[in-house]
Fold:
Amino acid sequence: MVNFSLQGKVALVTGASYGIGFAIASAYAEAGATIVFNDIKQELVDKGIAAYKEAGIQAHGYVCDVTNEEQVASFVKQVTEEVGHINILVNNAGIIKRIPMCEMTAAEFRQVIDIDLNGPFIMAKSVIPDMIAQGGGKIINICSMMSELGRETVSAYAAAKGGLKMLTKNIASEYGEYNIQCNGIGPGYIATPQTAPLRERQADGSRHPFDQFIIAKTPAARWGEASDLAGPAVFLASSASDFVNGHILYVDGGILAYIGKQP
Ligand code: NAP
Ligand code: GCO
Structure:
């Protein structure tokens, strides 16, 4: 029988106090996993723990900046000692800066690359040795439409998410022989705090132009909800996907397949 259960597994989801990470972690808990998450501020970790508790989930929250190698090493050691061996890592933490490329400073570009690409590298590098010792594991990197497409003002983010797609394929290539499967999820446009500026109502009460654009570009004719990612994320974390490796699963309502509705 196909097994989608995560019973007995420890799942670490980065940046999961809210948003997509919270939705994925909640789905993992429903599938039986023990949830570990981190955020860069204690107040957000506390808020996250309270939110999970309200959902009936006893999550383990830690303060950790995924770009800081020392913090990550200490975080992973602490989780392994206090909670158990990490079986599933979801590299979800990420930021975006929407600035025209020629107006973006190198420091701003580097910050996005650091969190969205170096962070997943540092996190994966820290959990893989124990996954090998445990006989395998699952790594899921949260990619993006911008792993495949560009658009104005998101050069750093697209470079990072394009790199994350290839890091996913490389981890799959380098560690597949140890029964580690590394795949990506490429969400479409999802209604979270990160995309709130693109959905703000205009002064006259009309929809944001970008909001209208995405509706026209999406066959499903709607923004995604973080909960739309739950099923695909459980699939990639479960033994049902043990022979899926190096794949980016786009959960985009069909955007990548569609030229867009005629205005
Ligand atoms: P979000 O609402 O902005 O949440 C991002 C989370 O990452 C926050 O909890 C944030 O914590 C945390 N974070 C940021 N920098 C961190 C760091 N250095 N170390 C640890 N945690 C850090 O974003 P989202 O919309 O849920 O997106 C989650 C992931 O999906 C991101 O990788 C994003 O690029 C990707 N994605 C989003 C969409 C979308 O349409 N929303 C689509 C495709 C892909 P703080 O609150 O403390 O900053
Ligand atoms: C943007 C959006 C996108 C989404 C997502 C799409 O400004 O274009 O923020 O980048 O966040 O990555 O998959």
Observations:
- Residues 10-190+224-257 form a domain with the Rossmann fold fold (CATH 3.40.50.720).
- Helices lie at 19-30, 42-54, 69-82, 106-133, 155-175, 209-217, 230-237.
- The mean pLDDT is 97.
- The two ends are 47 Å apart (CA to CA).
